[in-house]
Amino acid sequence: MAAWKHGDDGAGAELFRQSYAPVARFYRSKVGPSAPDLVQRCFLRCLEIRHRIREDASFRCFVFGVARNVLLEHYRGQRANARIDFTEQTVEDLSPTPTSELAHDEQSQLLLQALRRLPVDQQIVIELYYWEDLNAREIAEIYEVPEPTVRTRLRRAKLRLEEELCALVQAPQSGAQPSIGLEAWARRLRAELDRSPE
Question: In whole angstroms, what is the distance from residue 149 CA to residue 110 CA?
Fold first, then answer.
């Protein structure tokens, strides 16, 4: 990252190559078919502000921080005159995309539906933790908040996700039963999103 920051375009190309799949997955679960446009905007923004990266920063934290900001700008742009509270409003509210287009396995669809019913900020925290294997300290760097704050948000997000999953599983039209743990379920959904077409 230091080489890219100081003008080595080859190093930058390698960083973006390594980050493409995670960033695409980050957007795919939230905006569906608009994901490629947001990936492009995210990487362009990274190029524009690379001079502001701290020397001790991790590129993954940097790129996900930018990805989050680009996503929130995207939602604000769709609702120009409306105030959006990302601690309250959900992806389902802001970007209704059929989950069948993103996940085909029934359990994966249930998890994706439940994720999309979380407030946007909670969904992001859960995905960064379970899909990208970021720890609380790294997520705190992305959100620019203290680590204990992130730990509290993670606990609340996980409880809310479990509530949403239970509600979906108990819905009359659902025949699915959560037969595996949340972590394994999340890994399965991550793999499905990675196989989804752009």
Answer: 28
